[in-house]
Amino acid sequence: MMNRLSKELFPDIIEEALPDRIIQFGEGNFLRGFIDWMVHQLNKQGLFNGRIVAVQPTPHGKVVPKLNAQDGLYTLILRGLENGRIVEKVEIISSVSRGIDPYKDWPKVLEVACNPEIDFVFSNTTEAGLVYLKETFEPQKCPISFPGKLTAFLYHRFQTFEGSPDAGLTILPCELVEGNGHLLRKLVLRHSEEWGLELRFLEWVEKHVQFCNTLVDRIITGYPAEEMDYLRIKLGYDDELLTVGEPYHLFAIEAPPETADALPFLQIGLNVHWGDIRPFHHLKVRILNGAHTMFFSAALLAGKNTVVEAMQDDILRSYLLQGIYREVLPCLEVGMDQKKAFADSVMERLSNPFNQHRLLDIALHSVSKFKVRLLPTLLETVSVQHKLPAAVAFSLASLIAYYQNVHLDENGSIVFERERESYVLRDDLITVNFLKQAWLCYDGSDRSLQDLISYIFAQHTFWGLDLNTIPDLSQIVFKYLKGILRDGVIKALQRELLS
């Protein structure tokens, strides 16, 4: 039996003397392949000298037990094209000290709040994590939402250090929401007011807790299950948290110079930009993330499993090219050369033969992702060009069709069913249940399908508006959805968009 990765197996890899300096809400593939990798690079050069405590963001996480069993260690493989050359870099990352399940061990999270050496908070709870959830404050009980957890964490720190300015923290949320730092600050202050926390705490947050707007970019494909037999032999150990990503990375941060000095990413040559992040945000979220959301559901319904597999299909690729170049790019207020160059690089990255990015991973919180990544393109096209963007509308139809195949199994797991096979996935339970109930009312008739679309479109909490108010949208989505249900995605695309 292969030995598990641990400090016992590599006794010299962890610098035990390094203190915890970061608390991180999120322990998934992205943070481990991005932020934690960056901190590891700083530590290797002696420029940060601190480690990370990773907090599980949801009650159903499975990473923390594995992380602790491996003493915080995991392997990161970065492979793909770099300056036109194929590269593969394999490294054991040691920047994480431990993981905490706050739903079982909330006092351990509060202990971290009492640590005077903690300077930074990072997070990635997806777009669905930066939302308000009404909940009560119980000091010894873990709040459900990420903003609630952060508020309780900050309040405990405030109490511990009696409101000292030196106890303030720098918070860098990595969720792909425009103005993520400003939004998180508003949510923390809202919880503080509704929980009746003392005014001095609100003043402390406003004066001494810095919320930075950020943008992150790196494709992390996660655990390569299909390659693990080969990789175990190659590495000489078993790693349940082995993570694969691309070499490309971008981190844009709006923060004062002292934050840049405390996190000297530029000093070691990382692709980090300090300053206005808006140009980077629009390019990345609307093009790269928009591309993922635009075609994941169509690709899944067409029988594909990974991004590169979908990109190798001429019909799906043509659909994506139309959506990005003809619909997304015209809506971006960035120079044509810059946005076209970025779109070209995205298409190359999506076609990377090493990029085995599972479409079901992209499916996580896909409704909230559509709202952030594609709905702005739809609304701006209607407002400016007085027409509907066909590829974006088709992606909305395929998203609705995708949820016809998503439900809870007998074990309470969320599964996607396709051709008599079931695939376990992660998603928001409320969204899954709502859409499943909507589909249960569908009887196969045109009227029933129209009612289904109208009912889903009317959910203001999903979209931020009633989509039924957008001229002709329900009619064209009905047309596309009917074609998908009758003929399948590929034939519907050929007939409706690519003929």
Structure, explained:
- It comes from Ammoniphilus resinae.
- It catalyses: D-mannitol 1-phosphate + NAD(+) = beta-D-fructose 6-phosphate + NADH + H(+).
- This is Tagaturonate reductase.
- It holds the Pfam family Mannitol_dh_C.
- GO terms for molecular function: tagaturonate reductase activity.
- The chain has two domains: 20-274, NAD(P)-binding Rossmann-like Domain (Rossmann fold), CATH 3.40.50.720; 278-496, N-(1-d-carboxylethyl)-l-norvaline Dehydrogenase, domain 2.
- The strands form four sheets. The protein has a six-stranded parallel sheet. It has a four-stranded mixed sheet with strand order 4-3-11-10.
- It is 47% helix and 15% strand.
- α10 crosses α15 (366-373), α17 packs across α21 and α19 crosses α21 (473-487).
- The N and C termini lie far apart (55 Å).
- β12 (250-253), α9 and β13 (272-274) form a beta-alpha-beta unit.
- It is globular and about 65 Å long.
- It has 499 residues and is an alpha/beta fold.
